Amino acid sequence: MSSVVLCYSVTKQLKEALEHTVNRESTIETIESLLDKRQSLITAIKPPFTEEEHVLGKQMIIWNQEIDRKLSQMQSSIKRDLNGLSKKKTSVQKYSNPYESLQHDGMFYDKKK
Description:
Layout (H helix, E strand, L loop, with lengths): L2 H17 L4 H21 L6 H46 L17
Helix pairs in contact: 1-2, 1-3
């Protein structure tokens, strides 16, 4: 089997993994392994290509645009979750000890004589 056909099948698996996300952590692990596998296959692709391989390559380009869009959506979702988590952490800290953030190094001068 040629490396183009193998790369096509891995790209198809990657696209399907991004479409059917159930658990984000397991999906990320699957995506990472498929991306590593696909990267090694891409480096092994050498011309000349048959007509079938040209068709598969064009389909992979179309899928790659969808994959990039879905990966960027997943990345923004993860960033949003991390920002929300850090905001929640600071609000919990402020609620549990509301006077922690006050400065205690100021001085009071009595102007009355």
